[in-house]
Design brief:
This protein is α/β, with parallel strands linked by helices. It is built from 7 helices and 7 strands; from the N terminus they run βαβαβαβαβαβααβ.
C-alpha cells in the first residue's frame, strides 16, 4: 500500500474486529494515514492475522498495539480503552467492526443463538459507544458497522438484522449527546461483501441472487466500503453525524 498523506498524524484509534476483512483494512488505513492504532481481535485463532496488521501499521511509521478481548464483557471494553490510553495517552477514533452472522428462519432460532447475536451486535455496540462517549477526545470520530439488512424486507436474517438495527438507534442518540463536543457518531451499513464473513451462511443460489440485486451485478468489496469509513474518520467530516450510510451498490 502506498504511504498516504499523514492526515491523522497524532491521532489514536481503536479498531475492533481488526484481524481480517473490513476491520483489518480499516486499521491498516488509519495507521497509513498516521494514526496510532489499537488492533483488537477476539480469539487465539485470529491472533496471527491481527499481529500481521500490527506489523503493517508499524512499517508505515505509526505505532500499533495488539489487544485481545471478549467485548461481550463490559469490563473487557473498559480494558480496551485503558490499553489505548495507557499506551498512547488518549483516544480520538473508534471504529467498531466486530461481529458474526446468523442466517436462519426465525422459527428455528434457539435462545442461545438469539443471546449470542444480541450480545455481540447490541450489547457490545452499546457499551463501546457508551465508553467512547466518555473517553474519545473532543472533535473525535466514532463509526459503528451495521448492515443494509436493517432496511430490507427479507427472511432468515431476523435476529442478526434486529440486533444491528438497535445499534443504529444507539448511534443517533449518542451523536446528539456528544455533538456539542465536536464528536461525530455514524453507522456504515454495507450490503453483502465478498469476504469470509459473508460466504459461510450462503449458498450458490443466494449468492447469485444477491449479486443480481446490485446495479453492477456483483457483490461489494471491502474497497467499496473503506472510502466511506475514511471520510467519516477524517477531520473534514465534522458536519456528518447521526447517519446510517448504506453502501450496497444500489441493492436496496
Amino acid at each position: 500500500m502506498e504511504t498516504l498523506n499523514q492526515t491523522l498524524k497524532g491521532k489514536v484509534a481503536i479498531v475492533t474486529g481488526a484481524s481480517k476483512n473490513l476491520g483489518a483494512e480499516t486499521a491498516t488505513y488509519l495507521g497509513n494515514a498516521g494514526a496510532n492504532v489499537i488492533v483488537h481481535h477476539f480469539s487465539d485463532n485470529s491472533k496471527t492475522e491481527a499481529a500481521n496488521i500490527v506489523e503493517k501499521i508499524n512499517a508505515f511509521g505509526s505505532n500499533a498495539k495488539l489487544v485481545q478481548a471478549d467485548l461481550r464483557n463490559v469490563t473487557e471494553i473498559k480494558r480496551l480503552f485503558d490499553e489505548a490510553e495507557n499506551t498512547f495517552g488518549k483516544v480520538d477514533i473508534l471504529v467498531n467492526t466486530a461481529g458474526t452472522m446468523l442466517k436462519k428462519p426465525a422459527a428455528e432460532v434457539q435462545e442461545k443463538e438469539y443471546d449470542q447475536m444480541f450480545n455481540i451486535h447490541t450489547k457490545t455496540a452499546f457499551f463501546l459507544l457508551s465508553e467512547a462517549a466518555k473517553r474519545v477526545n473532543d472533535g473525535g470520530r466514532i463509526v459503528n458497522i451495521s448492515t443494509t439488512l436493517t432496511s430490507v424486507t427479507t427472511g432468515f436474517y431476523s435476529v442478526y438484522a434486529g440486533a444491528k438495527a438497535a445499534s443504529e438507534q444507539f448511534v443517533k442518540m449518542i451523536a446528539k449527546e456528544v455533538g456539542s463536543r465536536g464528536i461525530t457518531v455514524n453507522s456504515v451499513a454495507p450490503g453483502p461483501l465478498n469476504t469470509s464473513f459473508f460466504y459461510p451462511v450462503e449458498n450458490e443460489h443466494s449468492i447469485d441472487y444477491l449479486k443480481h440485486m446490485s446495479v453492477q451485478n456483483r457483490l461489494g468489496e471491502v474497497s467499496d466500503v473503506l472510502p466511506v469509513i475514511q471520510f467519516l474518520t477524517s477531520p473534514e467530516s465534522g458536519w456528518v453525524t447521526a447517519q446510517s450510510i448504506r453502501v450496497n451498490g444500489g441493492m436496496f
